[in-house]
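Recall that a protein's primary structure is simply its ordered list of amino acids. Everything else, from secondary elements to tertiary packing, is in principle encoded there. The following example makes that idea concrete.
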Amino acid sequence: MDRREARQKAKALVAQMTLEEKASQLRYDAPPIRRLGIPRYNWWNEGLHGVARAGQATIFPQAIGMAATFDTELMSEMADVVATEGRAKYNAYAEKDDRDIYKGLTFWSPNVNIFRDPRWGRGHETYGEDPYLTECMGVAFVKALQGDGETMKAAACAKHFAVHSGPESVRHEFDARVSQKDMEETYLPAFEALVKNADVEAVMGAYNRTNGEPCCGSATLQNILRKQWGFQGHFVSDCWAIRDFHEHHMVTRNMAESAAMAINNGCDLNCGNTYLHILKAYQMGLVTEETITESAVRLFTTRYLLGMFEGSEYDNIPYTVVECSKHLALAEKAAQESFVLLKNNGILPLDKNSIKILGIIGPNANSRAALVGNYHGTASEYITLQKGIQEYLGDDVRILTSVGCELFREKTENLALRQDRLAEAEIVAKNSDVVVLCLGLDETLEGEEGDTGNSYASGDKMELQLPKVQCELMEAVAKYHKPVVLCLMAGSDIDMRYASEHFDAILMLWYPGAQGGRAAAKVLFGEISPSGKLPVTFYNTLEELPAFEDYSMRGRTYRYMEQEAQYPFGYGLTYGDVEIRNAAVQTAGENVFVEVEAVNNGAYDTQEVVQVYVKNLDSIHAVKNPFLTGFARMSLKCNEHGKIRIPISKKAFEIVDDTGTRREEGSHFRFYVGCSQPDTRSTMLTGKCPVVLEYNKC
């Protein structure tokens, strides 16, 4: 069913409703209208990296880990699993007439905000700091989630429109002031791509204001979304964001005025309860019935597109597909591709035949919470790092373990003295041939402020260092001078200077999903080569960054930073040794490609992410540093040669001026083709320089 047909059916259905019935359908927990055969429907569901908060489901790596794969095909496969399991659960629940929260087909994912500052607690829900990578991963997710069938498989939602990335503590009253150049160059491109290239069905507004207007009641943002981009779907508020209009932003005086401001500016669906006052706003003359009708039509258009009233080809997906072996295998593959090897002095991969005693130490070694990030489902089995290694080695290697310390609390047992597990960790380190040290964070330390699904109400990070107790654990282990592999489980930039100086290898695992430990064991012992790349910059200090509240991009992310990174965006080692032998720019009509020839000179088979960056050499409006404009994965066996053709984004040849106008400008461009970005730090860490191509665009 196409949108025109679905809208006509929706209009006919809504025309049979009273004004009160129409208004009732604009809430996320829409009640039934039994006389018209309309069941209740709860619009709120989550599917960021697996169906969330509704019981058993396959849990994939957190979004930031999926971004580290630089693999859009894998992202598509993951999103299809989310839609498939979501349909299976919806079908089963609907048979029981269970239409509760988190059981519908409208998933409030993906989060395509830009991770502009490493302090932001929700950054791990995003695809990182780069607009192009975010766009590519987001489009792949939306297309696969929504499917290409006669009916929509599930409905995706691009959030949080449009300029939103902390601070969490003031998000309900904060005004993100941003230039028109930064808006068009950084904050809007992913949203535009999801609308124009993926036909995303929903868009969610942010809590904050943008340049003075509440995002869920902004005429400016709606003009961009619907008039400039042609968005046809429905718009939903973030949860209880409309209440902020009068309680925190102080742009209205009461519920009725807030409801009117939101719906008059294109917000069709209220996650919250402010739209209970829509009829009062109507009686006060603040809202017309036509406006209420239009929002209802948009919402029922989505329900018709999903086949909720006339059936769908997905109605027979059985519940037994949930967390099936095929889906679990894909989750493990995703974890394997997401891991980023930051340092390796040759210790990795580990040789189990040369290890008699392996020590596993750290608060995240056997932590389920560190596997799943936030917005997660419930797995039937959680393969922690410790369990994964034990499973992999079996009885071949003796394993000693110690939690070492708590995640951030100063003791494990309430009656004990401070750091009551530190001595145990030292004993394990002393008696081990090799130590795997697993540190990091979880959603209790970085997450969403006041998240209704997160009882810890966590928020932003205050610093880049690990909690003090973990820093002390690192020092305690280091003094034994044993070979140490640090496995870091976190969703953001963590200062790794001490670890880099004292430990033999550092492997970034992110929040790798319920199969993460099994995937990590295979990577640590060389069955699989790590191949992920950083989707964010690891900075040396926060002092080099602007204030958290400053939304200017100056000095932020790899595209605008002036200092040298600790670990740069796009960086990640493998067990192989991939060399870019040749590269050439090719054209086909208006399309531009870079053809790349590579060889793996290493002793291990590997995958590698070939990246293309571009620098405009003519325009004063060009992005400061070369920026990502194309990428692709290659699989290369030992000593194998391969070729790959990478399409170049048309935005590679465009600039954004100070008025926010995007246009082509200049004719001289420089492409950098390699396995990292072309900064000096990446060159130093990898020992490789990218191939440089000069290109004149006539």
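The longest helix spans residues 72-95. Residues 452-457 have pLDDT under 50 and may be disordered.
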